[in-house]
Design brief:
This protein is mainly alpha-helical. Helices cover 65% and strands 0% of the residues. The protein has nine helices and no strands. It is globular.
Length: 188
């Protein structure tokens, strides 16, 4: 599958910049982790790009409608499983099993929290964000209340790392793709 095909599918079912930004960010974060761990960046990136393909139009069927939409681009079973597993225990009973799936599960909500925190900074960027400031935002349940702290904590747990390590790695991953995401959004 080509990225252009995946991006067309994403944009077919997602019109809001917020959702497209999130998809592009998670794509970049997944590519970063794949590179760090020696996996296929393209595949991990596509999974990140399409992980919420059904969320905007079908929020009540999130992770349940995705397999049907992904058939439009002949997505592999591995991709469908990975995408559906990121909603484990909230909207899906598919458990994240592979390392990629566990990372997607762990970073999905966290990227939202980091982006919300970045927008509050004078720089409006992750490039100067410190883990300590993110920890403060994480503890403030009113800040970015839609980002599940339980899922983020559980994500760190299933990866076998501390929250602080997950925060640090995900901030670095977001820094690595922030400019690319901004450029791509300008072109849309």
């Amino acid at each position: 599958m080509e990225r252009t095909e995946a991006l067309e599918l994403l944009k077919k079912y997602n019109k809001e910049e917020f959702h497209i930004r999130h998809a592009l960010t998670v794509e970049g974060v997944m590519r970063y982790f794949a590179n760090e761990l020696g996996y296929d960046q393209d595949f991990w990136g596509l999974v990140g790009l399409l992980h919420d393909v059904d969320f905007e139009e079908y929020p009540e069927e999130h992770c349940k409608k995705a397999p049907e939409l992904l058939k439009e681009i002949n997505a592999s079973e591995e991709m469908v499983h990975a995408i559906c597993s990121h909603g484990y225990d909230s909207c899906s009973d598919i458990k994240p099993e592979h390392e990629m799936e566990k990372i997607l599960y762990a970073v999905d909500e966290l990227t939202g929290l980091i982006w919300a925190a970045a927008k509050m900074r004078p720089s409006k960027s992750t490039k100067d964000m410190e883990v300590s400031s993110l920890k403060k935002k994480f503890k403030d349940k009113k800040f970015a209340a839609g980002c599940s702290r339980d899922v983020i904590s559980k994500g760190a747990e299933i990866l076998g790392i501390s929250l602080e390590e997950l925060f640090e790695k995900t901030i670095l991953a977001m820094r690595s793709c922030e400019d690319i995401v901004e450029e791509e959004l300008k072109e849309m």
